[in-house]
Amino acid sequence: MKYIKSDIPRLYFQEKKNASAIALLVGMSVSGVTWYLRSHGYKLRSRGESGAFVQRKRGRQRMDITVADREEMVRLYINREGSVRQLASRYRLSMGATRSILVWRGVKMRTSSEGLKVRYPSGRFGELHGNWKNGVSLLPYGKEFTERLKKTIRERDGRVCQRCGKTEEEEIRDRQQRLCVNHIDFDKSNCAPENLNTLCNVCNIKIGAKGKRAYWTKFFQEEQIKRGIIASTPS
Ligand SMILES: [Zn+2]
Are 197 and 224 contacting, i.e. CB atoms less than 8 angstroms apart? Predict the structure, then answer.
């Protein structure tokens, strides 16, 4: 389904989508969407009103949060790959519930300035965590480079999840999120295109579960060979 500018008011007022979700659907910037609404005489929802919609929507779509999900949430948070807001959206939880999960598991919450300023966590919480892999997730990579690279990988993979076949259009419709770009060997510093593939958010969570990583690494490496992305005899 393709959306055009004139769909914006319907998406915003009838389907109660927020500006960032609409921006993805219509292929515009968030400010472009809000500008469109304002310039056509529409009144935007207040922060409180839109919060209530988000809460209601999350309540309906709430996923089962497994132990593996909780571990992944801790990992993403301590590795600075996700803020409380991002995790709440990814797992369809309220921000309060997300924060409780993290606090309950002994995660020290970042202050907002710390979140911006500090690049590396102490590692203290990471080492206690079952998925800790010698700190490989902490290795830095350029954000701009990654965004551009992610786009290339999604396009190479036809914007389809390489595990379940979900399309990016479906992902945006269901979760207001793009497809993820996964590091096949779980080494965040290994951004070689053959080590990257496209997954939907649910598959990305599933394959990251403790004890299943080696299986999925091998599985996807074989897939990459079949697709001609990796040569069968690594040099
Ligand atoms: Zn999938």
Answer: yes
Q: How does pLDDT run across 7-34, given as a tens digit for each residue?
A: 999 999 888 888 888 988 898 888 899 9
Q: What is the 50 CA–ligand 1 centroid distance (Å)?
A: 29
Amino acid identity of residue 24, one-letter, is L
Ligand 1 ion local residues (Cβ < 5 A)? 161, 163-164, 166, 200, 203
CA distances 100 to 58, 72, 97, 134, 144, Å, are 17, 15, 5, 27, 32
Instruction: List pLDDT tens digits, range 188-220.
Output: 888 888 999 999 999 999 998 888 899 999 999
The tokens describing 160, both together, are: 């389809």
Give me Rg for the CA atoms of the chain: 19
How many angstroms separate the alpha carbon of residue 180 from the centre of ligand 1?
Answer: 9
CA angle (18 as vertex; 171, 53 as ends), nearest 5: 100
Buried b (16+ CB within 10 A) or exposed e, 134-170: eeebbeeeeeeeeeebbeebbeebebbbbbeebebee
Q: Under a CB-based contact definition with an 8 Å cutoff, are residues 102 and 84 in contact?
A: yes
Ligand 1 centroid to residue 197 C-alpha, Å: 11
Question: Does pTM surpass 0.70?
Answer: no
- Express each pLDDT in 69-127 by its tens digit: 888 888 888 888 888 888 888 888 888 888 888 988 888 888 766 665 533 444 334 44
